[in-house]
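ugh ok fine here u go
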Amino acid sequence: MAQLTPPGWSADANWFWDGREWQDAISPDGKWRFDGKDWKRFRGQRTAMPVAPLYVAAPSAPVAPVPPIEMPSWVAPSEVERIVKEKQEQAAYAAVPRIPPPPELDWRKAGRYIEHSKDERVYQDWQVGVNSVLYVLISFFVCYPVAFIVIWRSGWRFPMKMIGTIAALVGPAIFYFGLLALGIRPPDLRR
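structure:
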């Protein structure tokens, strides 16, 4: 079983120690170098792979012997040997130190390393949800032209903005002709 050691870069930064073996950080054509996040232009000299590991592995802790297992008399001795061997392998595996992942790969810290878009829009309370619908209705009845401004400044998706605009344009005409169809004559406000 290979011994794990902490990861890191070689002195010339051309090789990366991943804990078990050296990984090449230079592209095969020698023009690009991976710095851990992305590929950068490289004009340096490609070096030979280091022979020794980056760190000397810590001596492994001695594995405690597995206590004898008591089994019924009808169990085959080969089965008892297999179980003892499995328990020894489990104990050896548990004794190997675990190297924590780098912080940017640790799932417990995932939100800290997310890059957010600069042009991502942050909406106010009046631009989304039920509040935006209420503001559109209030502005529609108080000051009709402002309703269009409120619709297009809201956080609604484009199809909903189009539907709201068409409804604001056609809605009063439908309401007017609906009143006429019911026999209700609106008062003449021209006088």
